[in-house]
Amino acid sequence: MSDHPETPVAPVEAFEPPYYVAVFATVRTPDQTGYGETNARMEELVKDVPGFLGMDHAQTPGGLGITVGYFRDAEALAEWRDNAEHRAAQRRGRADWYQNYTLHVAKVERSHGFTRAPG
């Protein structure tokens, strides 16, 4: 146990709809050689997409990983989908890192959030 408090974790804020989400759910293979570096590069790269709003990640103890990307409009999501480096990472993921995955894309029509006041 560390003497330092953990950095607070919070989900991406609620945005004014409509906007889009891409929900990427994965189970990875045992060999993750190169995954961490590629994942970090993708997280850097997507931030440069105009209309990218943020990203949430979760991992279950059983190995299910979920990443949710938030995009202002369909054009921003398409720009990310069509990015050449992202496409190369997708190919590598299918060849090496993912046992299986699903991708769900949806238009958000309602969004709200809650934050407990300190104290």
Automatic annotation (TrEMBL):
Signal peptide feature range: none
UniProt domain ABM: residue ranges: 18-92
Annotated InterPro entries: ABM_dom, Dimeric_a/b-barrel, Jasmonate_Hydroxylase-like
Descriptive protein name: Polysaccharide biosynthesis protein
Organism of provenance: Streptomyces fumanus
